[in-house]
Amino acid sequence: MTRAYYFVLLSWISFVLNAQTALSPADGGMRPARIVITNATVIDGGGTPANGPRTIVVAGNRIAAIVPGANGAGVRPESGDKTIDAAGKYVMPGLINAHGHVQDERAGVPMRQEYQFQIWLASGITSVRDLMSDFEKSKAWRAKSVAGEVAAPRLFLYPVFGLNPAPSAAGEAAIHARMKQLKDGGADGMKFFEISDWAMKIMQEDAHALGLRTAHHAAVAETNAWHDIKYGTTTIEHWYGIPDAALGNGVQEFPAGFNYQYEVDRFRYAGHLFRQADPRKLDEVLAGMVKAGVAWSPTLSIYEAARDLLRYQHQPFFAEYLHPALEKFFAPDPKNHGSFFLNWTSVDEAEWRTNYRIWMDAVKRFGRMGGTIVVGEDAGFIYNLFGFGLIRGMELMEEAGFQPLEVIAQVTANGAKVLGKEGELGHVRPGYLADLLVVDGNPLADFRILYPKTRGVAQSGKIEWTIKDGIPYHAPTMAANARRIVEQDRK
Questions:
Q1: Which of 122, 141, 247, 394 allows an S-S link to 479, with CB 3.0 to 4.6 Å?
Q2: Residue 8: CB partners within 8 Å, gap ≥ 6?
Q3: Domain ranges in the chain?
C-alpha cells in the first residue's frame, strides 16, 4: 500500500476516535441557571483558614452568595437547577496553571486536544496561561471554551514575541509592528526569550502601553532579572535570569567545550548555576523583584527529573495516562526540546539536588520578602504530564517550606493577580466568576488527593466536581475519558 493510503487510513481512524471521545456540551457539562452547594467547608484562596459549613449559590457563571450554615435557608434551588451536597467535602477556587502549553502533537505524533483538556479539568485546573502554542489554533479553542462548546479550562494566550531576523537586526519599527500585531490578534500577553537590553526596553514600553502582560524565559543572555526589574516584566519563568544576575564573577563557570545549543550541556550545567550565585547579591535581586512587582513562576516540577531520573521515568500515572505521543517525545533524543537525558549520571543528579535546595530556599526567601509566586507545570516536556505536573508543583512548593494555605493561594489568588483578573478569579467570594472545585477530602492535609484517579496512588481522584464558568464537569468522568483516549491511541 502507498504512503498516501496509510495517511488517509490514519486520518479516518483519528476522525472515528475523536467522534467517540469528544465532549459535547450535553455530556461534558451544561451551565445550570443556578447551582447550590450545601454543607461546604470553604477554602477561600486568600490564605485564610478553611471555614464552614457554608452554602454557596451560583447564578449563571457568578458566585451570587455565600450563606453561613449547612443548608442555606431560603436559597434552595428551584426545580431543574443543580444541588451539590458537599457534606464532609471542601470547596476551593479552581486552580490556575500559570505556565501551560496547548499541544495537539508531540514528536510529530498527533495527540487529541480533548486528552489534554480533560486531564486539566480532572486535576481541578480551570484557567491556563498558555505560554506559547499554535496561536491561531489556540484562539479557536479559547473561543469554544468561552462559549461552553468544549470541555476545557479558560485559556489566556501568550504567543511568543520573537522576530526573524532578531529584533536588533529588524529595527525599532519592526518591534512596534510586532507588538501591535500581537495585541490586534487577540493576545492576552506575550512570552519572550533571549533579547538585548535595547530591544527589551522598546518591547516592554509597548507592552505596558497596549495592556499586554509579559513572561520572560531568560537564558544565558544579555538581559537578566535586573532588566526585568528595570522594565517591569510581569513574571520571570523557571529560574533563568535570577541567579545569573547574582553571579560572583559576572559569568557562569562553563567548561571550554560548552555548547549552549546542545541541550545535554545546557541542562547539565544549569544544575550548577545556583551554587555559583553570591547569596548577598541574590537577595538583592530578589528584593529588587519584590519592589518592582515582578512575580516569579518557578515551575519546580518541570526539572525534577534532573535530580531523580528513574523516579520520573517510572511515574505511577504513566500506566494509564501517558499518551504515546508524549512517550515518544520524552525518550532521550536531542531533536526534542527537554529530552536531554543522554549519559545522565549520578553526579549530574547530585548537582541538581544541590541546585534544588538553593533554588527552593531562594523561592521561599522571595515569598517571605513579599514577592508574588505562582505555580505552573510546563507539562508536555521532561516526563511531566498535563495536570499531574501542576499538582506535583504544589507538593514541591510545600517542600520548599510554604504552608498548604500559602500554596493554595499561590495557585489560585496569585495566579489571578498575574493574569490581571484578581477581581474575578482566584477566590470563593460573591461576585467572582464561578470557578470552583468540590473535593471529597481535605487538600490542606494532602495535595495528592487532587491528582486524577490512578491505580496504585492512594487517595488520588478526590476532586468530585470541577466547575468552570458556572459549568460543572464531573472530574472522574474527565479522567476516565482521558484514560480511554490513551488506551485507544495506544492501539
A1: 122
A2: none
A3: 3-93+429-473, 95-419
Q: What angle do CA 21, 24, 27 make, to 5 degrees?
A: 85
Distance CA 453, CA 474 (A): 12
Q: Which triple of cell numbers denotes residue 79? A: 426545580
**Thinking of the domain 3-93+429-473, which architecture would CATH place it in?**
Roll (2.30)
So what's the architecture of 95-419 in CATH?
A: Alpha-Beta Barrel (3.20)
Joined together, the cell numbers standing for residue 376 give: 505552573
CA angle 192, 106, 330 (to 5 degrees): 95
Give the DSSP per-residue string, 159-214.
-B---SS-HHHH-HHHHHHHHHHHHHTT-SEEEE-S--HHHHHHHHHHHHHHT-EE
pLDDT digit string, tens, across residues 127-177: 999 999 999 999 999 999 999 999 999 999 999 998 766 776 778 999 999
Residue 249's alpha-carbon distances to 87, 188, 287, 420, in angstroms, are: 59, 38, 20, 37
d(CA 482, CA 150): 14
CB-based contact 23:118 (threshold 8 Å): yes
Judge whether 3-93+429-473 and 95-419 match in fold. Answer: no
Q: How far apart, in whole angstroms, are the C-alpha atoms of residue 322 and residue 200?
A: 39
Positive/negative CA dihedral, 274, 278, 280, 283: negative
**2 burial level (CB within 10 Å; 0-12, 13-18, 19+):** exposed
- Per the listing, cell 541541550 goes with 263
pLDDT for 84 equals 94
Q: Rounded CA gap, 478 and 133, in Å?
A: 23
376-392 pLDDT, tens digit per residue, is 999 999 999 999 999 99
